[in-house]
Design a protein that fits this description.
- Two copies of one chain form a homodimer.
- By secondary structure, chain A is of the alpha/beta class.
- Among the domains of chain A are: 1-96, Beta-grasp domain (Ubiquitin-like (UB roll), Roll); 118-194, Roll (Ubiquitin-like (UB roll)); 362-396 and 509-631, 2-Layer Sandwich (Nucleotidyltransferase, domain 5); 403-501, no CATH class.
- In chain A, 28% of the residues lie in helices and 22% in strands.
- Chain A has 18 helices and 27 strands.
- In chain A, the strands form seven sheets. Chain A has a six-stranded mixed β-sheet, sandwiched between helices. In chain A, strands 2-1-7-3-5 form a five-stranded mixed β-sheet. Chain A has a five-stranded mixed β-sheet with strand order 13-12-11-14-15, sandwiched between helices.
- The first copy, chain A, is globular and about 100 Å long.
- Chains A and B meet through helix 4, helix 5 and helix 16 of A and helix 4, helix 5 and helix 16 of B.
Chain lengths: 634, 634
């Protein structure tokens, strides 16, 4: 299926997205953030946009009346892009920014100048003269107001080699791109171009995830995002999660291979974005990269072995800038490349960058909980004064692996499940419509919640063959491994039953227990209850279509009023973009990284207690989930 | 012939040299400078050393009595190495340093610590711990006392990749090599080695000449020169002088070729020095390079075209340090490489580095003239307050080219000539003894002086067929092109007559006129006479065996009392070595370069007048050379 294009008015920005992408994500990717205080679960109605051409798949119409629906209004959070579409974004919506987040321009007129890693200046250099013996470089430095004899550090050999030609071909009218103070990678002078090219300034913000990689091509002159690209990390078939990648990376040649695979992924996206936007890769003069600690190690070819071994030590939490040109990104070789600072082996720069999108980046007394649930689950709790972070080995159960009919949130994936309590039969929503091929993360959460609400499983997750109207049956060679038929073979795209068995359920329970246990452990360690939490930020692609109520029902998320949840989308990518365009964000992210106290769960028996207690539905201590208990038929 | 070895006591240093090398040069190369106020012409007797094993070719015995000669005493300046030899250098001689020059250690005990471009520290790094989440890099920075979050610039990817292994294999006891403040090339942390390697510290000082390249391998821990290597610049067959190289370099692929040839030359020397001294090329952590502006352009792959064209503009007088690792020298890839700052297209870093060996580097009222006579001739005049410099296109006549039987100062070259006034017949000294193959620079100066003194040529250089006892004969197809037979075919190594003809003489006159004219022009431009000159420094290999009196006789050098002449040898190489080992020298050389006023001779008619007037023997104005006039038979 060809990738559909979303055109956004005002601004007339176009962005090509994968079919099935949430309309809200497409708008955010193209133009910046939009607040949805419901966390994208469709309750708040704040993300209303009007579709004027094409159609979207609209999942939740409850906030809109018939007239609005007729006019084309939809909730961006609950709509999926399935074909080319044009949407009008109301001004008041565009203006609603989450506090602490960076403002991004919503139309083509520059509002706030970017404070990037580099700065372009158009200058006129004095032509050479018999009156002095200055070289081309010396005259350039004079024109730039830089002292020529003070610093031994100024430019790379490539720049110097091109200098006489560039100066003479342009009549000594050139544009110099200089690295901002403190952000020099290979050289202070990044490049020199003939004529005035100040208006053409591009950078990339990059999120390197274990499963997917995403890139914003940023137009730094307009302070806007020109385009966004997302691709699966090409390392995927070398291990689904971090630990299996680390195990794979034991030999140097395999580290070289994994490094190459990340670079191919990122450069593939960058080349595509450049081609589609008429930008040359060497026009990209700066980059900010955020990723978890292991991904950063693999991107740099660093041995990740000691991340896995007690006492869980990274080679570097804050990789220096020096080796931008050695990294191999398809951008200008002298471009500064800033990597978001990590905190420890399992809380990386993706988390610190993501925190830039929360009130935790500003001085606040309010206590926030930040959750990034991906292949690994990271949690941060704190306020403007203190911050704790930890990581839970969530595993890939919600990323499409670890359960037998699991798949990623692509077309064909079951994303919503409702089980009729009496018949035990499931009704499913499939991404993109059509027949189901598997079940994605949000579908799995729904399924688990519905199985429990319908009484088909007990608190320990055990299927009850006596209920479920024959849909619960033993499979395989042992009668102990019961499974529940979610979709009958006759209705599935594969021609086989879509099943969930005891092993799948145990995997899901372990994942949800890891997430909840980590949050609970951190709060206990500072003597707080969940009721003290003012905001819960949910980051990561998995969170987009997650039904917060169902996630609470299975005891993965704590029982906090739904309106306190804020869905952030790819906060790591957005944070990398903030770092690319704002010196304040760059200072903040360093401050955040240094403020965070990292808790190592692997070695703390108190965490194991929390984890074990959370292996039940919703929890060993039902008092923690009073409203959930009420859902269950007695 | 195998290269003979000179062993020097005290210190027991050995150095392998080319047969025919002056013993003084060998001692200087191995252990540092020795003053010879006579300028190496054998008059001052200050460079007396005792040969205790082997023998040297001793050219001038006038300063020594029979007993001294029997004891093995020789003048190092007037002795050539022809076989393996052991020499004792008296302590008082070793101590006699030219003022303003850097002291170099003369025995194996460190005297003054080197202040190099890098510094090694042995440190113990805290092992990783569950008590904190620091990475290897962060703990290393803490051990080094460097703030981990302040600078984005610290080390290259190679260093970071090796860090976990180096730390763990060494029990976290490592040696860090850090670039000195302001001398970072690729990265602040140059390298990290297991264990304590502080005692092993090497650097290279490099002189890139148009004709020859020379390298000191410096032992920075002992502040001594471990070995010296000299080779012809492999660019030689791409043009003998600077202008022909620039012409050759017009196409980018030829610039790449010339760059490769310089690197092959230098790396050939470095590899040889390393092999012979048990040093790995990656043990070399710093380098200082001095060379003329064109050679620096060709070494860096910069287009030298605009050096040749009015207004004679280099790409850079002061190339930055940033591209050390891109340069391609066979040393550690992260080593800082400092290039001596140039002044203009024809006065380069070889001159500023060379000036470090003179009183011009210190505050002095005395006026000095510095001459570097090589393929190009550069002259500097001034004192502690003002400095003027210019370059004369001397041409390669004194470097073995430009005259038909010219050759470099290799074995077989005529280096001394005495012509019997009555017979007109020449007596010659040949380097290494044996039959003559050609005539070198110092021989050509001698020959020209003797031809004039004997009355065989007139003031315009015209040979007189009526004199010379039949040795002056027409050659070739025209009776106008007379030539003088220096060595008869029966006595020559080639089996043919060694001749000098009118064209040769005119080339020599042009060269000497260029040198004298440049000096005279500079002095006139500041209203001084040569009598105001307190010191004349002669640098460059050509000067070593130059007879100062004969050079004055032909009017190449001004008539200044001989005792004011100081021969410096390869001042460019010695200056590069000073920069490698002394922060004061590095500051001085920058100050010297910025203080020098560069005069462009090509465009000044007053220079042409001086040049034309100097085309006569000794000069159009004989009053400038009163003592010379007295030598000529009336």
């Amino acid at each position: 299926m060809p990738a559909p294009t979303v055109t956004i008015i005002p601004g007339d920005t176009s962005i090509e997205v994968k079919a099935g992408t949430a309309l809200l994500d497409a708008i955010v990717a193209a133009q910046g953030d939009i607040e949805a205080s419901c966390g994208g679960s469709g309750g708040c109605g704040q993300c209303r946009v009007r579709v004027t051409a094409g159609a979207v798949e609209h999942l939740d119409r409850s906030c809109l009346d018939a007239e609005e629906l007729a006019e084309g209004w939809v909730l961006a959070c609950s709509s999926r892009v399935i074909e080319n579409v044009t949407v009008h974004v109301p001004a008041e919506m565009a203006a609603a920014q989450p506090s602490g987040a960076e403002a991004v321009n919503h139309d083509a007129t520059p509002t706030r100048p970017v404070e990037g890693l580099v700065h372009k200046s158009f200058i006129e250099v004095d032509p050479p003269s018999l009156d002095n013996s200055f070289g081309d470089l010396e005259r350039l430095r004079i024109a730039l107001g830089e002292e020529s004899d003070s610093a031994h550090s100024f430019c790379g050999l490539d720049t110097l080699q091109s200098l006489p030609r560039v100066l003479r071909e342009s009549g000594h009218r050139v544009t110099a791109t200089l690295a901002a103070e403190g952000y020099r990678s290979r050289a202070h002078l990044v490049k020199i171009e003939p004529g005035d090219t100040v208006a053409s300034a591009f950078g990339v913000a990059i999120d390197v995830g274990t499963t997917t990689c995403a890139v914003h091509l940023a137009n730094l002159n307009q302070n806007s995002i020109a385009a966004t690209g997302i691709e699966y990390n090409r390392q995927l078939n070398r291990g689904l999660d971090i630990i299996s990648r680390i195990n794979y990376a034991r030999q140097p040649e395999r580290r070289a291979e994994l490094r190459q695979l990340i670079l191919e992924t990122l450069n593939g996206i960058i080349h595509k974005l450049c081609d589609e936007n008429g930008v040359s890769t060497t026009d990209i003069d700066s980059a900010c990269v955020a990723g978890n600690t292991t991904m950063m190690h693999l991107m740099l070819g660093l041995d990740p072995e000691y991340i896995r071994l007690d006492p869980y030590t990274p080679v570097a939490n804050v990789p220096p800038l020096d080796f931008g040109h050695e990294l191999g990104l398809a951008i200008h070789p002298n471009a500064p490349i800033l990597i978001a600072p990590g905190v420890g082996s399992y809380v990386g720069g993706d988390i610190t960058a993501g925190l830039l999108r929360t009130v935790l980046a500003s001085a606040t007394d309010e206590v926030s909980l930040f959750l990034d649930i991906g292949t690994n689950g990271e949690a941060v709790v704190g306020n403007g004064e203190w911050l704790l972070a930890c990581a839970a080995s969530a595993g890939p159960a919600f990323e499409g692996s670890g359960i037998r009919c699991g798949m990623r949130a692509d077309p064909g994936a079951v994303e919503r499940v409702r089980i009729d309590t009496r018949s035990g039969r499931a009704e499913v929503s499939v991404i993109g419509g059509g027949k189901a091929r598997g079940i994605c993360g949000s579908g799995a959460v729904d399924l688990l919640a519905e199985l429990w609400t319908a009484g088909l499983i007990d608190a320990s997750g055990k299927l009850d063959a006596a209920r479920g109207g024959g849909l619960v049956q033993p499979r395989g060679d042992t009668s102990r491994n019961l499974s529940y038929t979610l979709v009958d073979a006759s209705d599935s795209a594969t021609g086989e039953d879509l099943l969930i068995d005891q092993h799948d359920i145990q995997n899901l329970l372990r994942t949800k227990a890891a997430v909840y246990g980590a949050c609970s452990f951190m709060l206990r360690s500072v003597g707080l209850e969940f009721s003290a939490i003012d905001r819960v930020y949910v980051a990561g692609g998995f969170g987009r279509f997650l039904d917060i109520g169902q996630a609470i029902a299975i005891g993965m998320l704590p029982e906090v009023p739904v309106e306190r949840f804020i869905y952030l989308g790819n906060a790591s990518l957005a944070g990398a973009h903030a770092m690319l365009t704002s010196s304040e964000a760059r200072e903040k992210v360093v401050e955040l990284a240094s403020r965070i106290t990292y808790l190592e769960l692997n070695v703390d028996p108190a965490y194991m207690d929390e984890y074990t207690a959370a292996l039940f539905l919703p929890h060993t201590d039902p008092a923690r989930f009073p409203s959930v208990q009420a859902r269950r038929p007695s």
